[in-house]
Amino acid sequence: MLGTLFSSEEKYGPRLTMSLCHCSSEDGDHPARALRHQVQNSTGWQSDKGCVYPQELGFAFEGEVELHFIRVLSHERKIASRIEVFIAEATKEEIENGMIKPYHSSNFRRLGYVCFVTTADNAFGARELKTINIRQKCVYVKLLISRPYSSDYNLFHQVGIVALTSHGTIRRTYQGAPTRRICLIGETVEVPLDEMLPPRLGNPQSVQPQDDIGLEIDQVTARRIAEIVLLKERAVAAEDYDLANALKSCLLSLERVGKQLYYLEKEKATAVKEEDYASAKNLKRQIDNLREEAYRIPTSVPEKAESCKNSNRLCEPSSGKEPPLTSELMTAELRGGEQMPSLHAATPLPALLDESPVGGRDLYMIKNSDNLMRFGKQENLTANVDGNLISEFAEGKEEWERSINRVIRELSSRQDQASVLQGEALTEARNSENVFGTYCCACLFGKKGSLREAAIRAIISPVGFTALCTHSRMVMEALLSYMALPSRGLCDPVAGVVFACCEAIQAIIKDNIPDLPPVSALISHIQRLLPALVIRLGDNNSRIREMAESVLMSFSDLALEPVVSSLLVDPGKDKKRPVSPKVHVARMNMLSSLVDRYGINGDESISLEVGNVLSSAVLNCLQHSNGEVREAASRLFAKALLIAPTRSACYMEALKPAQQNLVEQQMEALKATAPRVMTQDELVSSATLNSSAVLDENEMRPAGRNCQSNSEGRGAHIAARKCQFCGQFDENFSEAALDIHFIRACPMLCPCPLCDQVMEIATLQQHLTTECENRQLVRECPICREAVRVEDINKHVALNKCIKAVPTHSVCPLCHARFETGLSGWVAHLASPPGCPNNPRKYDGSGPQVR
């Protein structure tokens, strides 16, 4: 049945005859020879217990082949994080001689890698099938298999491949191939790979505890025993006898403790009935302690595991989480290659509070799985009752590190726990660990945005900064370097982290942190953050935009030149994708503010000179495809013409007629809105081309600054007590009261349905698809540009009933009403009577709707 080709495989081409010729290790119960059989109940090859990674599998063909695809079916529990693919090609000499080198003497070329996704969130109910696009000539293929994901049901840190196939055509055969062949892959084929499902077992709820113990065991423990019984049966079905043996001893312990709990529960019920609450409290504590001890799988691993752990082999420590993977569950690709669909992908991960369907093919599922035994170093990561941190972060730490850890815990939710770093995140954090400590780095470089925010705020807090300074003199330098990292700090997708970064930079600039080094010594570090701050000027979140502008303006008081230089450079020049038009509009407006404050003659900054501003920034933006960008650029050009007409005139002549008309319109608008300044400008305009014109321009600069200072002073009181989103003004608005207004009442805001971050309703769709921590759960519809759940996107697009997105109109994500785009349209829809019918908040900002 070697040549069997199923209908689902026809698109990949005929199967190739492929033999296994090298295997770095194998489990005695699941040897490499198991890859010969592709039948319904195949469990395939598994690496040896406690093996060294990466594991290597080598394959040989009958001769030189045109290899199109390799399809790999991963084990449902022993899942490799990724597989690298190498090929060996026949040389000219080998082709001429008709004899190829042995596998171990061949030269291999790396093609790329594919990543596998852990199915822990799906209760190990699926096997992932990867289809790898090769399209290369070769004689050998080598797979390097990386370490597995940590799993409560992979005690010995193994990886497994259930089956694999190769597809392509044979080009030429060679006689007497010298490579030893272990087995023929797919010698027996009964079912296609996408039908080789994990063992099907009954519903866990149908399994009942044994009759002879069920009557004297409390209900919670009885359910636990039922789950362990099912777990043991599934371990036996999967021929994982080491796990079955461990579960057997766990059952005996549960039966013994269950009887004690049964009588303690009765005593507690009696105490509560008699209102003896002190005794009830003591009994509850005893019950909780007993359950915590009994519900943990015993730490006595079978002898086979112990011998493996104590051997001289290098065992990689497992961890609670793996680094983020770039491969999606539904596709597989080699870098530079073509994507191919996976026919046997696991169920998409559900969002919080979603109804999660329970599959019938799941393997091991136990509640409170955090208490299950880990293999290797994970056994040491037990809970520390005193500090409520796992021992990796709490044991053997100095006082300064314990102090910063306490501050982080106080600023974050007590339920949030950082995980031990792995992979790229661990490499990134190495330089910072000596300054911030292990736990602080685990928060800064971890996956939880709330912990990243808490760590930044802890570092700049008086207690945290003082504790760190007793250990290192490079605290602020290290923090600013962290903020400049790609995807970290100011580039973090979580808004709270960006807020914390901006507040930290503002505190440094204004010297609000006790014992802070001179700001002049940190200017070079802050300069590295300016490009990211410029990008944030066009962020969808208005609060981020305002904070970025505030930081840039504050820093311009210390070092104007780097701020102007960063604004003159096109932020999208070196990026693969163009930046948002909002960024360019914000650049023009920011430059305009700096011109008002410092003039445009180059005295305060060499870059803030008419020629530099117009040639480096304004002229490029005047050619932008977005109308708002062109309008902002023409407004700045008009201001330059009014302030410095002599030096700006030559640039005006170089514009196209349409651009000149736009600039002239902006000049008329500026003259109408600033008549007093215009009087002085007319004097400048009438001056002859000599040094007196320059003198007039210089005399005008202080007047502009004073005018702005006065207007800022008049509006400061109102701005501090006015909601920046809906415009509501209240004399009682303090900073804390405004935060409450944002969270509960502002009709322009709502919590993100995936991450609960409070967002502007106008930018909710962009947030869901580009910034949200759980954005992998949704996809952007190409028609309406709205976020749709991954599992519904194909059906949504096929129906073609959504409202097509157009640049001139916006669509409310709550009620799908359509109105003219822009801030006025959103305010009219959300914050004006009668308000959005589906908005849970009243249009006047007075609070939630009463339904």
Could you please describe the fold and organization of this structure?
Among the domains are: 7-195, Galactose-binding domain-like (Jelly Rolls); 397-513, no CATH class; 529-673, Leucine-rich Repeat Variant, CATH 1.25.10; 735-830, no CATH class. It contains 29 helices and 18 strands. Strand 17 and strand 18 form a beta hairpin. Mean pLDDT is 76; it is low at 201-215, 297-387 and 675-714.
Q: What topology does this entry show?
A:
Layout: E1 18-23, E2 37-38, E3 45-46, E4 55-74, E5 82-88, H1 92-97, E6 108-115, E7 129-145, E8 160-173, E9 183-184, E10 188-189, H2 211-214, H3 219-237, H4 241-273, H5 277-294, H6 303-309, E11 331-332, E12 340-341, H7 391-394, H8 399-411, H9 423-436, H10 438-444, H11 449-460, H12 462-469, H13 475-483, H14 495-509, H15 523-527, H16 530-536, H17 542-558, H18 560-568, H19 581-598, H20 610-622, H21 627-643, H22 645-653, H23 657-673, H24 675-685, H25 691-720, H26 735-744, E13 749-751, E14 758-760, H27 764-771, E15 778-780, E16 787-789, H28 793-799, E17 809-811, E18 818-820, H29 823-830
Parallel strand pairs: 2-10
Antiparallel strand pairs: 1-4, 1-9, 3-8, 4-7, 4-8, 5-6, 5-7, 11-12, 13-14, 15-16, 17-18
